[in-house]
Each structure stands twice: as C-alpha cells, then as structure tokens.
C-alpha cells in the first residue's frame, strides 16, 4: 500500500521558507511567510502576552482539564464582541454565537463543515487571487462546486470591482461567498465602504451566504473598529453570516492556534440547535480545542488595563508596517524604478502584491538572496531599516533587467 503513495505538490510558502533557511548568504532576506518581524528581523512575543503568560504560570487555580467541545466561553464571547463591536444590535438581540476553533484555518474548516453538512450548501466562491488555503479547506469539507470571482485588476493594481460584482451577480443562489474582512491576502487591496455597499446589495439580491475571513483585525490599520467595518456593516444590515477570526497575527500567537467562528443569525432561538450540530462536527474531528492561547486572549480582552496594553502592541506592529511601505515606495521612486509604486502605500496589511513577475522574483532570489512568492507577493514585515535599501536596489535591478 504505502509503496503506491506518490509525492504531493509542495506548499509554495513553506518551500520558499526552506530555501531561505538553507541559504547561507549574509544579506539574505525573507519576504515570504506571513508573520510579523521586528526591525531586527526577529519574531515578537507581545509584552502583554508575556505578562499574561507569566501570571498564568503562577496561577495555581488553573489546570489542564479538557475544555468544552466548543471551547472556552469567556474567549469566544469576547472574540465575538471584538468583531461585532461593543454596541452591536446583533449582540444585544442575542443573535450571535461564538465557537473557539483551531485558529483561522480551523474556523474556516468548522464553518465549511457546518455549511456543507448542516446547512447543505455545496457551492462556494473565493476571490481571484485569494489566500492559498481557502479552496482546499472547502473542498476537503465536501464542497464540490468551486468558483472564483474576479478581484485583482493587474493593469491598475487595484480592485476589479466591476468584475467582482458581475461574477457575484452571476453566482448561483445558495452559494457561499468568502470575503476578506480587511487586508486582503495576497493583494493588500480592500473594497472602499461604498464598494462594500454594492457588494452587500448583490449578495442580498442573489441570496448568497457571506463568510468574512478576518485574520488581521487591528493588525491591519491599528484600529479594531476600522478593520471590522465591513463585517459590522453586513451584520447591521440584517444578513445571516459567519466570521472566521484568527488571533495569530494580532496577538502574535501563531503556533497556539487561537481562533473563533462567530455566527450571526436572524432568529436567536436557532442558536442552541446550531451549537448542538457544531458540537457533533467538532467531536468527530478534533474533539475539543487547546486552552493556552485562548486563555491568554480571553484574559487580555476581558481586562481593561491589559486590553489597552494590547492596543498599543497592535499599533506598534501596524505602524512599523506602514513605515516600511512608505520607505520602500520612497526608495523605488528615488531610484527612478520604471512603473508606478503608489500601490505599495495604498495597499494595507502585511502583504503587498508588488506587481513583480515570476521571472523577476526568480532573478531577485538568485542574485540577491531575497525570497518572495512567485506571484510577487511581498511580506512587508520582512523589511527592516537595515535591509530596505538592499531590497529596493534588488527590485530596481530586476525591473530594469
Ligand atoms: N485567512 C487568511 C486570509 C490568512 O491570511 C490566514 C493566515 N495566513 C488565515 C486565514 C489563517 O491563519 P491561521 O490558521 O494561522 O489563523
């Protein structure tokens, strides 16, 4: 049996990180995987997280008993409130519920399983391009009708709103539409508020089901409310929807797998039955989620002093990203690199769709030992005040070559 197993395709982002790790060049730069780095190119444990973990380690009232199947309630309630907002009418009416999941990926998987097996959806749409995992998650959950909607306008390096609206308009009713709540991965291009309204109009008219993938709340702009605007707009308009939240980026808790699936329904009375169905799906999958990261997030979100400290941390991260964006653009413009580079600063979040071709990406990796994805996606967090000149020169050389 095992002798018949063929080699599966590598996941690009992990292959690029391996190539970077194996490269001994002293000036090498990793602009690939989506994780925050300090100006010293180091991972950052948020001080508020360290402080909370230290207190937890000393707290003898905590233990390692199983969490409930749907997770730590103080966490999922706080996470749901964080995305829907303090004054959410949906929350006041009891029309939302939260389920702790294995980070954003796990939230998407529980969402997909619920939509497929409980609500009987079978068709889903994701943006072209999108985060590399959406398709696989939904297909593994059993969805057999996979579609894309237009999103990136390569010529203008922006959103193809007309293409997007046309494709959503042509979607079959009863399709699930995956939307990025903010800081679209990989393009860094988000709809404006006006465009979100147009998107909502089509989704409503066609009875489509929206899911907001929310991996960057607070991390994108430094402002939790701004980054949740689209979700709250849809919720306030009366949609039933799901929100898949990741706390990997905004808490720096990548390997702790902290996520939440928030579900907004029209009629609060359906929530117990829904939760009972999700309980069976989770029980048959991973049984119950891990405690540590969720407890850290719950402690911080539920304590005003720690919450303020955390807000300072997300502002530190988002400002560094914005400074690096401005710095890269300024350098390319100063070098006179052919092309327009304003998209680097108009895009938001950790990624920039640079517009570099696969050939240029290869050239830069071979000559300069700077690694990015073949799509030209750059993780801006990989830039520092020490390597930004070197990266700008490499991009300039690749464009001129
Ligand atoms: N969705 C998007 C758009 C993402 O960029 C990511 C992280 N790269 C995720 C979901 C989920 O990540 P995680 O499972 O680590 O929370």
From TrEMBL:
GO terms for biological process: aspartate biosynthetic process. The keyword Nucleotide-binding does not apply. Residues 27-395 form the Aminotransferase class I/classII large domain. Its cofactor is pyridoxal 5'-phosphate. It comes from Hyalella azteca. GO terms for molecular function: L-aspartate:2-oxoglutarate aminotransferase activity; L-cysteine transaminase activity; pyridoxal phosphate binding. In eukaryotes there are cytoplasmic, mitochondrial and chloroplastic isozymes. PANTHER family: ASPARTATE AMINOTRANSFERASE, GLUTAMATE OXALOACETATE TRANSAMINASE 1, ISOFORM B. Keywords: Aminotransferase, Cytoplasm, Pyridoxal phosphate, Transferase. Homodimer. It is found in: Cytoplasm. GO terms for cellular component: cytosol. Its EC number is 2.6.1.1. This is Aspartate aminotransferase.
């Amino acid at each position: 049996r095992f002798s018949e197993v063929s080699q599966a395709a590598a996941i690009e982002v992990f292959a690029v990180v391996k190539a970077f790790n194996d490269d001994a060049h002293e000036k090498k730069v990793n602009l690939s995987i989506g994780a925050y780095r300090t100006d010293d190119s180091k991972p950052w444990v948020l001080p508020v997280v360290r402080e909370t973990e230290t207190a937890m380690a000393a707290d003898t009232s905590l233990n390692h008993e199983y969490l409930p199947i749907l997770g730590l309630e103080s966490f999922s309630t706080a996470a749901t409130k964080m995305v829907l907002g303090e004054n959410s009418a949906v929350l006041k009416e009891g029309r939302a519920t939260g389920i702790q999941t294995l980070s954003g990926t796990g939230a998407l998987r529980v969402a997909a399983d619920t939509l497929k097996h409980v609500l009987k959806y079978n068709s889903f749409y994701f943006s072209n391009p999108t985060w590399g995992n959406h398709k696989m998650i939904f297909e593994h959950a059993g969805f057999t009708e996979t579609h894309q909607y237009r999103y990136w306008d390569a010529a203008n390096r922006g959103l193809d709103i007309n293409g997007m609206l046309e494709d959503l308009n042509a979607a079959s009713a009863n399709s699930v539409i995956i939307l990025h709540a903010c800081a679209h991965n990989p393009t860094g291009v988000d709809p404006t508020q006006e465009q979100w309204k147009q998107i909502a109009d089509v989704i409503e008219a066609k009875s489509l089901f929206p899911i907001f993938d929310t991996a960057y709340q607070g991390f994108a702009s430094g402002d939790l409310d701004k980054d949740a605007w689209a979700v709250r707009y849809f919720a306030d308009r009366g949609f039933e929807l799901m929100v898949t939240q990741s706390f990997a980026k905004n808490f720096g808790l990548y390997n702790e797998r902290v996520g939440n699936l928030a579900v907004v329904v029209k009629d609060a009375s359906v929530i117990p039955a829904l939760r009972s169905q999700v309980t069976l799906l989770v029980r048959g999958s991973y049984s119950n989620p891990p405690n540590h990261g969720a407890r850290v997030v719950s402690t911080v979100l539920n304590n005003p002093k720690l919450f303020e400290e955390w807000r300072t941390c997300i502002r530190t991260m988002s400002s560094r990203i914005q400074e690096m964006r401005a710095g890269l653009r300024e350098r390319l413009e100063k070098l006179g690199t052919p092309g327009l580079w304003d998209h680097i600063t108009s895009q938001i979040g950790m990624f920039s769709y640079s517009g570099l071709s696969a050939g240029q990406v290869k050239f830069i990796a071979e000559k300069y030992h700077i690694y990015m994805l073949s799509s030209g996606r750059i993780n801006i967090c990989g830039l520092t005040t020490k390597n930004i000149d070197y990266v700008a020169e490499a991009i300039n050389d690749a464009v001129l070559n």
